[in-house]
Specification:
Oligomer: single chain
Order of helices and strands: EEEEEEHEEEEEEHE
Helix content: 10-25%
Radius of gyration: 21 Å
Strand order of the largest sheet: 11-12-7-13
Largest sheet: 4 strands, antiparallel
CATH class of the largest domain: Alpha Beta
Shape: elongated
Strand content: 35-45%
Length: 177
């Protein structure tokens, strides 16, 4: 029996959740998101909480029970509070800035990298070496942060590149004479 799937998802004040068939829709102050559950999972609204249960005892239902509950939790949390990923840039001359609808990255290439900011995502550069990606869709925020990091991932010798704020880079020892 799933330990995560057993816990109902509380719906905070200011968020409305609607369950119609296999589609769950959450609307809050940041926006509106919807999720389609697989046929083996059922969701219902009880006492201001979303309860996710398997329809049968099959393998597919047991595998996806906790995943569906976590996706519902991310949906409700996203429209209420939103999600943020922070990135750091290390390296001499490496910097980032927001210009209009583009994130301009100077990462040691012969040209600046221009990343178009997708709709529903907000990117801030408080300092030239820090990037904050935020939005209400957790998957989209993570995807945008991963795409920015992929332009120049951290290298193991000096740690130069773009990394997540809490990422630990395993350093290697350089050449010896």
């Amino acid at each position: 029996m799933s330990r995560i799937g057993k816990h109902p998802v509380p719906v905070p004040a200011g968020v409305t959740v609607q369950v119609t068939g296999q589609t769950l829709t959450a609307k809050g102050k940041l926006g509106q998101l919807s999720l389609t559950l697989i046929e083996d999972i059922a969701a219902e609204l009880q006492d201001g909480k979303v309860v996710v249960k398997p329809r049968n005892e099959g393998k597919l239902a047991r595998e996806n029970w906790a995943t569906a509950r976590t996706n519902v939790f991310n949906l409700v949390t996203g429209v209420d509070k939103g999600f943020t990923k922070n990135l750091e840039i290390n390296g001499v001359g490496y910097k980032a800035m927001v210009q209009g609808n583009d994130l301009v990255l100077n990462l040691g290439f012969s040209h600046d990298v221009k990343y178009p900011i997708p709709s529903g995502i907000t990117i801030k550069c408080d300092k030239p070496t820090s990037i904050s990606v935020s939005g209400f869709d957790k998957q989209k925020v993570g995807q945008v942060a991963a795409e920015i990091r992929a332009y120049r991932g951290p290298e193991p010798y000096k740690g130069k590149g773009v990394k997540y704020e809490n990422e630990v880079i395993v350093r290697k020892e350089g050449k010896k004479k």
